[in-house]
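Bug #77: duplicate submission created two jobs. Keeping one. Sequence:
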Amino acid sequence: MCLLLRGNSRGPTLTTLLGDAKVSSNKKHSMVPMLTIVFLISYGLLAWLVVEQNNTIQAQKTLIRQMFGDNTELTALKIRINREKNQAQARAQAQAAVPPLAPGQSGGSNRSTGRMQKSAPQKPPKPTSDTMDVRRALNTI
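Kept job's structure:
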């Protein structure tokens, strides 16, 4: 803490109450090289971090592409297995549905295409509450 006193003929007088009155201008100049070195080291570490982050991103990108290729291959394999399973089931059902022909019968109408014919869906019977009473039928002109 410093106090400025007036009243001397030589000008203002500086009085120090606590601590030393020595002002060192040498310390200010000695910190500049050290700060420069610290900043250079920090910028070097930052550049290294950016390069490593780029390497990590590239590795993840490659891994994602490989996983996508594996997924595509696996999906194609599943589709092929399901198709083969469905064809085998269709053949088994077609063989079970067609009775063996007697030697005297002709098999001209029997064509096996590997597909099963779809039967029309059966309609449920109408409930009795929905049927209209014939005695109360409305005739309009």
